[in-house]
Design goal:
The complex is a heterodimer of chains A (448) and B (400). Chain A has helices spanning 19-26, 38-52, 59-65, 78-83, 98-105, 134-140, 147-155, 183-190, 213-222, 230-243, 248-253, 255-272, 279-305, 310-330, 349-375, 434-444; strands at 73-75, 159-161, 164-165, 177-181, 404-407, 412-415, 421-422, 425-426. In chain A, strand 7 (421-422) and strand 8 form a beta hairpin. Chain A has 16 helices and eight strands. In chain A, helix 2 (38-52) crosses helix 16 and helix 12 packs antiparallel against helix 15 (349-375). Chain B has 400 residues and is mostly helical. Helix content of chain B is 45%, strand content 4%. Chain B is built from 13 helices and five strands. In chain B, the strands form two sheets. In chain B, strands 1-2 form a two-stranded parallel sheet. In chain B, a hairpin with a 4-residue loop joins strand 4 and strand 5 (356-360). The chains are: A mainly alpha (448), B mainly alpha (400). Chains A and B meet through helix 1, strand 1, helix 4, helix 8 and strand 5 of A and helix 2, strand 1, helix 8, helix 9 and strand 3 of B. Strand 1 of chain A pairs antiparallel with strand 3 (255-257) of chain B, so a sheet runs across the interface. Chain B: This is Ribosomal protein S35, mitochondrial. Chain B: Residues 92-104, 123-133 have a biased composition (Basic and acidic residues). Chain B: One of its GO terms (molecular function) is structural constituent of ribosome.
């Protein structure tokens, strides 16, 4: 392990998602060759590429793994194969008719492609045997934030291969092997870090100020559409927020807010469809609103004493959500047009029916929002910030090579085949220029 | 001995309480005394420039971009999206006659295809694919998402390496569809692979993983849904296109591995009049090498295409296809039966308390002439086992 892993003076690109690495990657250049001998060029190329391609594998081990035969494939067009038997390439003066050869060479998806065939970047495949390693594959599948972390997961026993615990990070995956990492570990590795051990808050958002309640109110006032009653606007606001993806984080933020919205929603359903709902439904809804209110007041009391209301409230949100779901299921559906949602007008029967419809619709939206909140709950006991959100700078490193098939839901992936080079594309992800890769490959050829 | 200081080098007004020492002199020369706390060490120039980049052009990478990938290759030096600039330029250039141009190109493509003698069925498929691609591009440009679609160069996470780009992954809906077609409807993996343009191994893996996912749901085990959603948002995806029989393919399904025998350049003289085909060429490289037609993953597609070229009626083509499929199925069953019979014959399993003991006949000749043959089993005189040597780690080579 080098002393300066993310040094800025002699920057090395590493296999991880840190901001230092991103910065080093952004300013990486091709090393100058003009003032170096060929041996020096090769040495430098080897040293910078090895710093990326698993430096934890000892050099001796790696040189034994190295293979100068680099795997490659050529995509074939079955339509072309059906039309020609291969003799067309030797027609004319022995190298194919000019027009035909142009066609044959452009074996892209369209036969009429006139571009010359792309070259196969063999040299980028110099480190392909290392991609077979279990720790590298875990990192490539986006289950860990670095190969070192992936390695730790393996040695600590969080990783299974084909359903059996595998504790060797150097295990070489075979085509068809399935590896799975414990989902909680994956969420920890890829999620935002916590501000403090005891809280659920994220470290990466502490700088940004949250919108205060006053500023939110100002926003609502400025909205020209919902200006009739402050109560109604507030509730529709929350319902809309739950519907769209943009406002989701807000919805997650505070279970207390969610509950308040829930109570208002129930009351609004009650108000708007008073004429439509049966007495029993009304009773249920009232009971529901009251129970939410009780829970809120209880949370407030605890807040004053211990400020640890998060977990109990979160658990009970699930119960409440289930109750609301039941109540919604009992509200009758109206087969009325939904385009027009006019403000409530007691005298008009059409408008009343509309109200019932919108009430049901909004209640459903709320139900969905709660389900989502349940999927990504706030829990201070977790080792990562909750609700879960991706770690900063992750998106710049997020790609999954084609030799893996990943199912993120169960944090498992299948190693389909060994990585190969194909025209215009090398499947081993490497941040270096082709020249550097070629020099490194040359270093490992025994004659230097 | 006290340190010797030349009085001539001392400044004129030395504070009265300060004992003349080298430190005191330094403080007097450099103004305010430096802090001795490690935490408040002054940032180096390199660190300052790093934070300058992270808070300037690099700030865009902190959070994922909504509805798009967010790679280093998509931005210029100042941290601006390269494709946005291009989009602006394009919009200025061809503000008018876009629709007519599009129709024109479509017509010209169709005409070209007719000239080339592409079959009707084939033309339909291609037209469908073009329509889907166009729809996608438009949806990216002016649908609900204002961000234009990524170009190929925008998908480069490593700016120096132009030969690597982030490739598309299967979207959640497409995976679900693959699972439905294979596991629920029971269609053949190869047929699904050819239709959707997904590698056969990938189709099998998707089904395998989806099966486990369903199992988890049944067991009430919690899925990593928030992780899944946000990771898939960061990646380029192949969407599920409904109502199209031949959607845009996900990947090349007929990859021909480069055989090591074909790496050498050969000079093979042959008569001019000879019809020298791929099959002959394969034989020249190696007597046992098969031609490309037989080494690709879906050789049956070539046959189907040949029938289409012969202008066979569709019903005939269908009948022949079914015949071939049945034949293959029968062959597969036969192979499986033979394997099972062989196992029955040669392998004997004795159930134990914890483990089953498996016995299989081996031949002592398998060790070969030098006694080190891979098939050889057991202790051989003069050939020591390596596995007790110091420093040799015994990592398993496969997990069943």
């Amino acid at each position: 392990m080098p002393r300066k892993f993310h040094g800025l003076k002699k920057p090395k690109v590493r296999q991880d998602w840190s901001k230092e690495n991103l910065y080093n990657l952004s300013r990486a250049t091709i090393p100058t060759a003009a003032n170096k001998t060929f041996f020096q060029q090769k040495w430098l190329a080897k040293s910078i590429t090895r710093a990326y391609h698993n430096p934890h594998v000892r050099e001796g081990t790696w040189t034994r793994m190295f293979d100068r035969r680099l795997p490659a494939v050529v995509p074939m067009n079955y339509r072309y194969l059906a039309r020609h038997d291969g003799s067309e390439l030797a027609s004319g003066r022995g190298s194919g008719l000019t027009k035909l050869s142009a066609k044959a060479s452009g074996k892209g998806r369209r036969g009429d492609d006139e571009r010359p065939p792309e070259k196969t970047p063999y040299m980028h495949m110099a480190y392909h045997p290392l991609e077979r390693r279990l720790d590298t594959a875990i990192w490539r599948a986006l289950f860990a934030s670095s190969t070192r972390q992936a390695r730790q997961f393996v040695t600590h026993g969080w990783v299974k291969v084909n359903g059996k615990k595998m504790i060797y990070p150097g295990y070489l995956l075979n085509p068809g092997d399935m590896f799975s990492v414990e989902p909680d570990r994956v969420l920890y590795a890829t999620g935002a870090r916590k501000l403090k051990t005891k809280s659920n808050r994220s470290l990466q958002h502490k700088v940004e100020p949250r919108p205060t309640s006053r500023s939110r109110k100002v926003q609502r006032k400025s909205d020209p559409e919902n200006e009739e009653s402050p109560d109604a606007t507030a509730t529709t606001d929350s319902a809309e927020g739950s519907g769209s993806v943009d406002k989701l984080p807000d919805e997650y933020e505070d279970p207390k807010q969610t509950m308040k919205a829930l109570r208002l929603r129930a009351r609004q359903i009650l108000d708007e469809s008073k004429t439509k709902l049966s007495g029993k439904r009304q009773q249920e809804l009232r009971l529901f609103a009251r129970s939410v209110w009780k829970l809120l007041s209880k949370a407030r009391g605890e807040d004053k004493t211990k400020s640890k209301f998060i977990i109990p409230v979160d658990e009970s949100v699930q119960d409440l959500e289930a109750t609301l779901g039941e109540i919604i299921a009992k509200i009758p559906i109206d087969d009325l047009p939904k385009e027009e949602t006019k403000p409530a007008d007691g005298s008009n029967p059409q408008a009343r029916a509309d109200d019932a419809y919108t009430a049901r619709k909004e209640a459903e939206l709320l139900h969905a929002a709660l389900a989502r909140a349940q999927e990504n709950p706030i829990d201070a006991r977790k080792p990562y910030a909750t609700p879960w959100q991706p770690r900063e700078y992750m998106s710049a490193f997020a790609f999954i090579p084609r030799y893996l098939e990943v199912n993120q839901n169960i944090c498992s992936a299948v190693y389909l085949r060994h990585p190969v080079a194909r025209p215009g594309l090398a499947e081993v992800p490497t941040p270096f220029h082709a020249e550097t890769s070629a020099l490194a490959f040359n270093w490992y050829l025994r004659r230097r | 001995m006290p340190p010797r200081i030349h009085t001539g080098r001392l400044p004129q007004q030395v504070p009265a309480q300060c004992v003349p020492s080298s430190q005191c002199v330094k403080a007097a020369q450099h103004g305010p005394a430096r802090s001795f706390h490690a935490s408040s060490r002054a940032q180096t120039r390199l660190r300052r420039s790093m934070y300058g980049w992270l808070n300037g052009p690099g700030a865009v990478f902190r959070e994922p971009m909504k509805g798009s990938t967010n790679y280093l290759g998509a931005y210029d030096k100042s941290g601006k999206l390269a494709r946005l600039r291009l989009l602006k330029r394009d919009a200025e250039e061809n503000a008018e006659d876009e629709g007519s141009k599009e129709l024109e190109t479509e017509a010209s493509i169709v005409q070209q295809e007719i000239d080339q003698g592409v079959s009707d069925e084939e033309r339909e498929i291609r037209a469908e694919q073009r329509a889907v691609a166009r729809q996608e591009a438009q949806g990216g440009a002016n649908g609900e998402n204002p961000m234009p679609k990524e170009r190929r160069s925008d998908l480069r996470p490593y700016p120096l390496n132009s030969n690597f780009r982030s490739q598309r992954v299967l979207s959640e809906e497409l995976r679900e569809e693959v699972y439905r077609l294979v596991a629920v409807k029971g269609e053949a993996v190869s047929a699904i692979s050819a239709r959707l343009g997904i590698d056969m191994r990938r189709v099998a893996a998707v089904v395998r993983l989806k099966t486990i996912e369903k199992q988890w749901i049944d067991e009430g085990k919690k899925l990593a849904t928030p992780y899944s959603q946000s990771v898939l948002d960061m990646l380029p995806k192949t969407p599920l296109v409904r109502g199209v029989r031949h959607p845009y393919p996900h990947e090349d399904i007929n990859d021909l591995p480069v055989h090591p025998r074909t790496r050498a350049q050969l000079f093979y003289p042959t008569s001019e009049s000879r019809q020298f085909t791929r099959e002959d060429a394969a034989k020249v490289f190696d007597s046992s090498l098969l031609p490309a037609d037989k080494r690709i993953a879906h050789p049956q597609l070539i046959q189907y295409e040949k029938w289409a070229l012969e202008d066979l009626p569709r019903e005939d083509q269908q009948a022949r296809r079914e015949k071939i499929e049945q034949k293959e199925k029968a062959q597969k069953e036969e192979r499986e039966r033979e394997e099972a019979a062989w196992k029955e014959r040669t392998i004997r399993s004795v159930p134990g308390r914890r483990w089953d003991f498996v016995f299989q006949d081996i031949s002592a000749e398998n060790v070969g002439k030098d006694g080190r043959g891979r098939q050889g089993v057991g202790y051989r005189y003069g050939v020591p086992h390596q596995d007790r040597k110091r420093g040799l780690i015994k990592i398993p080579t496969r997990v069943e």
